[in-house]
Amino acid sequence: MITLSSMQMKDIIYIEDGTKLGHLTDIEINVDYGRIVNLIVATKSKVLGVFGEEREVIIPWENVMRIGQDVILVKKSNFYISEPSEKKQT
């Protein structure tokens, strides 16, 4: 058995080229069937090497190939990438 908190500590890695995508931030569960539907991963892309935009990548559960001790290996196809999140100004 694996817990959400232990999954959040693992790196999400593309199986095709070994690129690190980010860390798991949330999961979507179909409560009618009791199954995980999507993994939600927060990523940061750097602009000019300094500033970063945070985006969420939604990975369908079918794309999860293996959950290891330190990493979660996923396929690249069928991802949904959200728009950059806007930081609230106070």
TrEMBL record:
UniProt cross-references to Pfam families, sorted A to Z: PRC
Location of the PRC-barrel domain: 13-76
InterPro entries: PRC-brl_dom (IPR027275), PRC_barrel-like_sf (IPR011033), Spore_YlmC/YmxH (IPR014238)
Protein's name in the database: Sporulation protein, YlmC/YmxH family
